[in-house]
From TrEMBL:
InterPro entries registered for this protein in UniProt: Glyco_trans_2-like, Nucleotide-diphossugar_trans
Protein name as catalogued: Glycosyltransferase 2-like domain-containing protein
Domain Glycosyltransferase 2-like, first and last residues per copy: 13-56
A family per Pfam: Glycos_transf_2
Length: 179
C-alpha cells in the first residue's frame, strides 16, 4: 500500500501501536524498526521518533546495537522537519509514529500535490496540537534513501518547482505559530 493512502484514510489502515513508512527499495539497518519502537516504548510521552538517514549512500546502513535518542521540543522538531539537509529531515520514512496519535491528529495527506507532499504532511503533523510537545531523535544513520534518476524530484519542470516553492511558503506560515 502506498503511504499516501495510509495517511489519507488512516482509520481503516492502522492496526498496530506504531506506524513506520518504508519505501520498498530503500535500505535499512537491521535494527531500524527495533530502535524506533524501543525509543517510543521508553518514552511514552512522545509521539514521534526519528533516526538519522542518508540519501543515495551505497550499501545498507551499519547495524546500531544501541542508539541514544535526544528529546526535542515541538519548535526544534518543526525546524528539523522543515529545513532540507537537517539531521531530522522532512522525510516520513526515517520516523516512527504512534498510530493513535496519527488518528487523533486528523492530518491528512494532500493527494493533489505531486512534489513536497511529504514535507507538508510532516510539518502539519508536528504542528498539530494532537502531537506531544516533545519528540525524540538520534543522528545515528539507520535509513538510506535510494536516489532514483527517474524520481520526480530529479525530473520536475519549472511549474512543479514553482508549486514546490508555494508549499515551502505554506510550511513557513505554519511555523510562524511554533518557532
Amino acid at each position: 500500500m502506498e503511504w499516501r493512502q495510509c495517511v489519507t484514510a488512516p482509520s481503516k489502515k492502522f492496526r498496530g501501536k506504531y506506524f513506520i513508512f518504508v519505501d520498498g527499495d530503500d535500505q535499512l539497518a537491521p535494527s531500524f524498526v527495533e530502535m524506533l519502537v524501543k525509543g517510543l516504548e521508553e518514552n511514552p510521552d512522545v509521539d514521534i521518533a526519528s533516526v538519522g538517514f542518508s540519501w543515495g549512500a551505497s550499501g545498507v546502513p551499519k547495524k546500531a546495537n544501541e542508539v541514544r535518542f535526544r528529546r526535542v521540543d515541538r519548535a526544534a522538531m518543526f525546524e528539523g522537519v522543515t529545513h532540507r539537509g537537517h539531521v531530522i529531515s522532512g522525510m516520513v520514512w526515517n520516523k516512527a509514529y504512534r498510530s493513535a496519535t496519527l488518528l487523533n491528529s486528523r492530518v491528512c495527506f494532500d493527494e493533489s500535490l505531486e512534489l513536497a507532499e511529504d514535507h507538508l504532511w510532516i510539518a502539519q503533523l508536528v504542528a498539530s496540537k494532537a502531537i506531544s510537545e516533545y519528540s525524540i531523535f538520534t543522528s545515528d544513520v539507520l535509513y538510506n534513501k535510494v536516489s532514483r534518476s527517474t524520481s520526480i524530484i530529479h525530473t520536475a519542470l519549472h511549474a512543479l518547482r514553482e508549486r514546490e516553492r508555494e508549499i515551502d511558503q505554506q510550511i513557513a506560515r505554519i511555523g510562524d505559530n511554533i518557532i
